[in-house]
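Pilot study result, target chain (118 residues):
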Amino acid sequence: MHRVFTTSVASVHVHYVAKADKKGRTRAEVDEILRWLTGYSQEALEAALAAGTDFQTFFAEAPAMNPARLAITGKVCGVQVEAVEDPLMREIRYVDKLVDELARGWKMEKILREPVAN
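Predicted structure:
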């Protein structure tokens, strides 16, 4: 598990984008998910990616982790996201789950847990 802590976000981001692209989605949507989750601006996100920032630092330095992320539930790689005990791994799994939803064709409003207008 130590490998995950030193893995750069950029090295995984390319896989998120490739997964989304295969399903007709875009890098902009992947980045929107990351910005929604962490509070980074697009410029700060790009700087973190360019700097090779590892996941631990990326989440620790996030401007404003979105409290709505706690509503993310479901399985990633057969594991319930909300049951992941390690806080860092849970944050990583939140991203994995949101990118999975994007690749499945979900609307951004649903992915980003936006309230439904009446």
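One observation from the pilot: The chain has one domain: 2-111. A full batch analysis is planned for the follow-on phase.
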